[in-house]
Amino acid sequence: MSERRIANNHYPGLDVVRVIAIAGIVLMHVLANGNYDLSGFLFEKVIGTAGNFTILFMMVSAFGMCCGYYEKFKAGTINIEAFYKRRYKKLWPFFALLCILDVVISPSADSVYEIFANLTMLQGLLPNPQISVVGVSWTLAVIFVFYLLFPFFCFLLFSKKRAWLGFIIAGIYNILCQLYFFDEQHVLGNFMERENILYSAIFFMAGGLIYLYRDELERLKNIRIVAVFFLAITASAYYFLSQNDLVMAVFSVAIIIFAITTDGKLGENKLIKKT
Known about the structure:
Layout lengths: L11 H22 L7 H7 L5 H23 L4 H26 L3 H12 L17 H11 L1 H7 L3 H22 L15 H16 L1 H6 L3 H18 L4 H17 L8 H5 L1
Helix pairs in contact: 1-3, 1-12, 3-7, 3-9, 3-12, 4-5, 6-9, 8-9, 9-12, 11-12
């Protein structure tokens, strides 16, 4: 087994990525909701755009789910009931508490409708949810839809050829969403593109493809040097050229490749594991 992963096909380096991304997103919301009037590269380009790490979360979620369940689904040895029960047990308790606190603090008739949708964890299936109860949970909503579709996702990843075909189709969907389906005739003006599973499918497929090629990546000669170089180039493109979803997606790919092909000892820290 590679030194970069430990038991159960787990990559400690990805735990570090999750913690950094979470910290960035939290700081971004604090900065956006406060009147701090802070400027400069750190606050505008780094923290100010950290909300885009939701794309990274989608890729990491796909990669992590594949580490735990892809082979089981492919071999037909998965207990489907246990699979979905674990998804709810892992996410629902803390999320439900946040929803209840939100409704208690800001009660309204609308919040009652929205908390029902949130507590089912199926709000991501709504065509245009616009949920304000724990509004930032839209990321969790689209990721949970991915969990619901994970058996089909494994079907798409059954072979590398099919995975690439699925990735291309997901890319076409992403483009069509921007060019046609997400215009004023189809959605509300404040609709968030990433809330839609078809728009975001390409990010999940990217995480799955990295999983399929993980062993090849680790066997590449001088992979650590290449991973660092790729990360530096994509980070520069993101922070100095453009923060659009495409650039962020490529940057996220670089982050994951770096995390799974370099020493992840920091991720074995107990504090990191519990985060």
